[in-house]
Amino acid sequence: MRSQFLYQLLQVHRLKYNQSICSGINASALEKEIGPEQFPVNEHYFGLVNFGNTCYCNSVLQALYFCRPFREKVLAYKNQPRKKENLLTCLADLFHNIATQKKKVGVIPPKKFITRLRKENELFDNYMQQDAHEFLNYLLNTIADILHEEKKQEKQNGQLHNGSINDDNGNSNANDMPEPTWVHEMFQGTLTNETRCLNCETVSSKDEDFLDLSVDVEQNTSITHCLRGFSNTETLCSECKYYCEVCCSKQEAQKRMKVKKLPMILALHLKRFKYMDQLHRYTKLSYRVVFPLELRLFNTSGDATNPERMYDLVAVVVHCGSGPNRGHYIAIVKSHDFWLLFDDDIVEKIDAQAIEEFYGLTSDISKNSESGYILFYQSRD
Ligand SMILES: [Zn+2]
């Protein structure tokens, strides 16, 4: 599930004014713009200080903070008995810090979280730009691992107290098949990989879980088109024939991948960084890919559990720049009835129409662009 590569974006650069002065003015302007009556009760809009190319992290954290079910679970974790520091306790402290601020707007340094992240994973232990999708994947998997480990510990402690540690088989089974955590309940969906043998017509299917979906992008398309492409029927022939269990031989087959279980929060990663063999490096595809505010999936399998699920766009991590080795990340999020743009320590209110500016470019791939990179869709039910 984790992608192999982590390319390192060198040096991001955007001109920054004096941070404290700028964010002070910006913060009060934001409060004024929203207005005292319209400002949502118990909501806080806090920018995050950049600790040297940490916008990949800041943008993902803001997007996740505005995925309300995720925020609520993280805050609930904060209220549990104190635990030894890990990435999740640091995230919970950060979210709690934002949620309990006296002021409605401002800036917070996510220092403890960044320090912990750099300590835990050497890939992030530097001042270079990182891939926001790689970070999201790492974060969700790490949180799931922490929760799973805690559940296991609790179970073992419970068994010790009850004096019934005779269930060795049960334990090893539990290790093989980890119980779903709230990260799974929120982000996990299932794909089904259907293969139809063209000789005997037998259809075999294999399920595969995902926490986010990575889709290829094409010029002047929509996210629905990209998802359809993802599920297009592929013919396995010549060297790529498929071994059919019924025919007991290699046969031509048709393969397609469909969504069988739709997640509560659908995280869609647009594969905008493509390795160019001729250039020996990754290049950015700034293609214009329209992503609607409301989404319904059409690439679901016949036996899907909830194919009608309607999704609303709640957050977008945007990559700005011409290529993976120079760039910057920002997040646009929906909060109550309006949209906000988080650019590290700067927070601005934007019009819903302004989201179109983040679809990408209709022309040339090499030009500078600010384009949607990870989309977060939250289900209505
Ligand atoms: Zn067959």
How would you summarize the topology of this molecule?
Blueprint (H helix, E strand, L loop, with lengths): L18 H16 L10 E4 L6 H11 L2 H11 L8 H13 L5 E4 L2 H10 L11 H31 L5 H9 L5 H6 L1 E9 L5 E8 L2 E4 L4 E2 H8 L3 E3 L5 E3 L4 E3 L1 E9 L3 E7 L1 E4 L4 E4 L4 E2 L3 E3 L13 E14 L2 E10 L2 E6 L2 E5 L18 E11 L2
Parallel strand pairs: 1-2, 5-11, 6-14
Antiparallel strand pairs: 3-4, 3-10, 7-10, 8-9, 11-20, 12-13, 15-16, 16-17, 16-20, 17-18, 18-19
Helix pairs in contact: 2-6, 3-4, 4-5
The structure holds zinc ion.
Quick gist of this model?
This protein has helices at residues 19-34, 55-65, 68-78, 87-99, 111-120, 132-162, 168-176, 182-187, 223-230, and strands at residues 45-48, 105-108, 189-197, 203-210, 213-216, 221-222, 234-236, 242-244, 249-251, 253-261, 265-271, 273-276, 281-284, 289-290, 294-296, 310-323, 326-335, 338-343, 346-350, 369-379. The protein has 381 residues and is an alpha+beta fold. The chain binds zinc ion (ZN).
